[in-house]
Amino acid sequence: MHVEGRDDHDQVAFRDDAAIVVRDGLIESVTAAADVVGLPAAERIDARGQAALPGLINCHTHAPMVALRGIAEDLPTEAWFDDVIWPVESNLTARDVEWGARLACAEMIRGGVTCFADHYFAMDAVAAVVEECGIRAHLGQAFFSSQGPEGRERSLEFALRHRGGAGGRITTALAPHAPYTVDDADLAATAELAREHGLPVHLHAAENRDQTAAGLARHGVTPIEVLERTGILGTDVLIAHGTGVVERDLPVLERAGGRVAVASAPRGYLKFAWPTTTPVRALRAAGVPVGLATDGAASNNSLDVWESMALTALVQKSAEGDPRWMTSRQALHHATLQSARAVGLDGVVGSLAAGHRADIVLVDLTGPHTQPVHDLAATLVHSARASDVRTTIVDGRVLMRDRELLTLDVASTVRELGKRLPALLDRGHGRRVQRYDAE
Residue 80 to residues 76, 84, 85, 228, 436: CA-CA distances in angstroms? Predict the structure, then answer.
């Protein structure tokens, strides 16, 4: 068994023939396998031939949107929102969100995701599913300014009600949708609430270059500069996507003093044919951690963070014109420690180290597509697949053992969700939850 950890320079390190000792949901020690042979244990997991990694973190998704997987294909961004997604989302009920969240959590647990950052509607239902199935989550109730002050108030009420929920597995954030759907006054009020209540903020911003160009043309500022002038960058903030971050934004982000993180979900950017991707190298130089994400399955089609990790490495090489960036070890670092920082869980998860929560995945490396192993980091990033995850553990609790989910029933979830789809997918009413006006 290999154990993935960190050295003093934030580089990925590996250890052979290792054992992880877990007690009361925490990693007590990482030691040699020989040292634990006679150690009394409530449970032993034999993972010979497997790699142990910190559980992967999906830093930005809309989990219940798995119910919309594949309904809006091959469309530009505006049509995707206005013609399909936002009309359908006007039908959403809490029960739709609940069953979608169940299916999403099953997919993520099977894919070695132990924590996800969700930004959606009817989030009480998502919190209940997180409590039930044992995964870890960073949750925010999304709102638009078109909802009036009630949207912002509901986001705050949700964050305060569920903060520390599920035995500490739930953390919360205020969740304005984006600068193009939430006005400056609402953003400023959100920043004030975040400071008053000690809450982070999770929102979309500078998603693509068109949004940045529109902000400059209409108002003379970029979306990132809007976040600065409204005080959002004075909070702990997670920005989704950032492919529209431009050179003038970098000193703005650097001035934020390490309080800003970005979540990157490259598969969706490729599908929408956006001309740029998240500028990970420049953000790193500005001191901004970049976590990996999938976005919702309506745009990405899956919640596979392994795919996001491999695509990030490949797209970054192409964008920078440099095969030396990003390396497999750097990609693993973004998928683990930087992702933990992005969702405010640095020092809690993201590393197999004593004192961290026992969020662990075991990955089978015996398949023909992962052999031989000349470079373990490259094998994990470019050869391994989500289906190679054998066991998923959160807070020391086994949620999947040998590919068998222990806390969720996929068959019944799919059946129940299927019954709800006709009403959910109806677009004949002509309503939308919002209109896309970012270009």
Answer: 6, 6, 6, 29, 9
Q: Which pair of tokens denotes residue 328? A: 């497999």
3-state DSSP of the chain: CEEEEECCCCCEEEECCEEEEEECCEEEEEEEHHHHCCCCCCCCCCCCCEEEEECEEEEEECHHHHHHCCCCCCCCHHHHHHHHHHHHHCCCCHHHHHHHHHHHHHHHHHCCEEEEEEEECCHHHHHHHHHHHCCEEEEEEEECHHHCHHHHHHHHHHHHHHCCCHHHCEEEEEEECCCCCCCHHHHHHHHHHHHHHCCCEEEEECCCHHHHHHHHHHHCCCHHHHHHHCCHHHCCEEEEECCCCCCCHHHHHHHCCCCEEEEECHHHHHHCCCCCCCCHHHHHHCCCCEEECCCCHHHHCCCCHHHHHHHHHHHHHHHHCCCCCCCHHHHHHHHHHHHHHHCCCECCECCCCCCCECCEEEEECCCHHHCCCCCHHHHHHHHCCHHHEEEEEECCEEEEECCEECCCCHHHHHHHHHHHHHHHHCCCCCCCCCCCCCC
The whole-number mean pLDDT for each consecutive block of 10 residues of the chain, a chain of 439 residues, reads: 46 90 97 92 93 98 98 96 95 97 98 98 98 98 96 98 98 97 97 98 97 94 98 98 98 92 98 97 96 97 98 98 96 97 97 97 97 97 98 98 98 97 94 83
pTM beyond cutoff 0.85: yes
pLDDT for the residue numbered 439? 55
Beta bridge partners of 141: 120, 174
CB atoms within 10 A of CB 322: 11
Q: What is the structure's pLDDT at 226?
A: 97
